[in-house]
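WP5 quarterly update. Target: histidine kinase. Source organism: Paenibacillus plantarum. Length: 597 aa.
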Amino acid sequence: MKLFAKPWSFSVTLHILLVVMVVFPIVTISTMILQVYKRDLLQQTTERTLQTLHAVTYSAQQEISKIEYAAAAVGVDRDVLSTATALSQSDESDRFKYINELTLALSRYTYSMSSQVLAIHFFYKDGGVYSFKQNLTKDERELRSEAWYRKLLQQKDNVQFLSLQQTLLYGVTVPLAVAAAIAPSDYHTLSNVEMIYFSLNEEAFDKILRQQPNDDSTYVIVSKEGQVVTASYNWDQASLTSAKLEQIRGAREGHFIDQVSDRQMLVTYASVGDTGWKAIQEIPYSKVTANYERIFKFVLFATIAVIVVFLLISFYLVHSLTRPIHVLVRKMSLVMSGELNAKIGTSKIAEMAALGRTFNHMLDQIKLLLRQREEQEQAKRKAEFAALQSQINPHFLINTLNAIKLMALISKADNIRNMTNALMRLVSSSFNRGGVLIRFSDEIANLKHYLYIMEIRYGNKFEVEWHIDPRAESKYLLKLLIQPILENSIVHGMAGKETSGKIVIQASIHEGSLHIVISDNGEGMTDEQLEAFRTRRSPHTFSGMGVANVHHRIQLHHGEDYGIILTVNEPKGTKVSMKIPIIHRDQEEERPLKLEA
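Structure tokens (predicted):
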């Protein structure tokens, strides 16, 4: 299961697909073609051998018909029956005459098959038997008691082909002979012949097999009982087993593969008429499949060649496809390690070339974003530096202000002394605390010192209202965020105003953010001025930063979701809305900041 759990590479997947979708089908189709060809070859060979066997069975049937015709002709010939009857009733002086007449009469029917006829026996109704050519070695009473004899007595003038019978003749060494018999009809009232029995050798059947081609095939004709009627010279007696005989008895014709000795043989068989005989042909299976073996070797070689050529081409194509991917993986590994100059070269494949261009464009964008981030960090540091420019020598500045305060005290100039004291506290509070953050309650205290100075400067021309949510006083924010906005409201909003002005400072916590709103009823700004104010930097004042710089500082520190929005304060004046995240900070300044969601 680990093999399937681990992801496969693209090249391995392609190779497996090629084998499954191409190599496997080619091998399967080649195997099927060979099997179909082998089956057709076996079928064609079987059909040819059956045609040959049909010729053999036809010839054998012709010979059997010839024997049956001769037997029937003899059995219905009145002259033959009369002569045979006279022979049985004659004395010794006339016996030779009737024998010659009977021999002459029989020769007319057996002339064409005289070499086959071993003997013809005439069984008489009142006992006794006359044998033509060869005498019987067996008692006639035993023959009369056999089943075939009794059956023929019930079927007059019907020739019965008895297939192979044991040879019962003097001077004949063959153990079996072809036999046929006929019982003459009772209509021949003057005949004393009860049965005519013919014994013939297998010479005619031997001729049939000798006419077959002289090749590796073997032929044999067997009787229903499994007795060999005739066989070709190269036939092996051991091949005729009881199992094979049992197999061929079940059908009129057919074929099967049989193991003979140490080799396989294609056995084909066909029936010889209704005699129960079977003509069998055996062909070495290796000879039948000789063409198949040649075709098999050719197809095997062609299949291997096609597969090898295809695999070489496919592996080349797979390598061409996967090489750009491997290059991409290596380049991405270099990018992960920080190497942003790992560009991908051009590829001959359009998709890979597009992928390479996309990858190179991505690297360019990453470098551009990094450069922009670096520029933002630099701008952030510059903003922080600008916010703290006045801290060039804070101790010297505070000591100088303290000296001015003492001189005002000696000169009894209370306004100068109070104003100097407020400025000294403001500067001391801004410079003597570490970090860039300040508690909102401390920032409010600093703003009050600053407003005291501005009230003295402008002669109490404005008043300030405070609406601070108590929950906001414990939160932290960047130093010097609100002072530039107040300065902008006083300098630009209240400077030309003859009536008393009003500045409202609000702070609340809403939807997870700290919202600070500073509104005045001063001169206000037109829409064009508001748009221009959003796109330019404010003049530097006491803190060294304008409203636009404050907005930029907020976004540098907290992101583009935060910042300042300038709107018109109805019915007259300007409203500055500031949104910053809620920042919690422990009493220890060195601890990291925690932002509230």
